[in-house]
Specification:
Length: 134
Amino acid sequence: MAGVRRKARIIALQTLFEVDSVDHNPEPTLERLIAESDLPEEPASFARELIQDVLNSKNSIDAVIRTHAPAWPLSQMAVVDRNILRIAICEIMVEGKVPVKVAINEAIELAKMFGSDTSHKFINGVLGSVSAKA
């Protein structure tokens, strides 16, 4: 289950990245990525719910990021890092369905796959601070 959930998080990240970068509509973007990946229905539903929750709570999630990463204005943060943080904070604070350690570990793995050489350390630091207050 963890493997397909990670694939769902990757698709969620790719969708949010595209929406954030070029302002595409999230629904067709997500459906295209799901179709291209042959993701089974259950993890596809997880990805849909995650994206919807992130987008619905984006202002409050971004406020949490600003609080816990004050040296990094959101507009100057790498798009991939910003969206990994949004997913993880959503899972920790909005959905609450995943243990905090799982959300953080998954975010670190996404950062290692898609971020810069230091992204995983940055993500871990911010989420460590967030989880201490959650």
